[in-house]
Amino acid sequence: MEIKPDHKKSILIVDDELSILKLLSFILAADYDLIIKKSGIEAIAWLEEGNDPDLIISDLMMPYFDGSTLIRNLKISGFYRNTPVILLSGAEDLADKVKQMPFKIDSYLEKPFNPAILKSQIAQLITA
């Protein structure tokens, strides 16, 4: 018999593509509390209100305030430095782009991604 915690872990999802937000919601809503933001600016505003997600999933390429800028700001801050981050992107050479970033990305997946792999990565990062 599996004992579940009283509350679900929370995941902040940041993506400007409605189809990706709907897909992630469909895949993850049963197991996690999801906070959906459509831009890095919305995500930062939500975080500045004192919210503390267990994990962040962010798109890399978004207008105005992209995923790289969002994650850089989080990693520089003392408060969110250790919050695990999964980067999603349809960008070519994503692995090379992640290696060149001056901060740690916990995991990344190219779009389109395999939902089972995403769920596995989330489980590893949240329970780690």
From TrEMBL:
For this UniProt record, the keywords arranged alphabetically read as follows:
Phosphoprotein
Gene3D superfamilies linked to this entry? 3.40.50.2300
* Domain Response regulatory positions: 10-126
The record ties this protein, via SMART domains, to:
REC
Q: Is Transmembrane helix given among the entry's keywords?
A: no
GO terms (BP aspect): phosphorelay signal transduction system
Any idea what this protein is called?
Two-component system response regulator
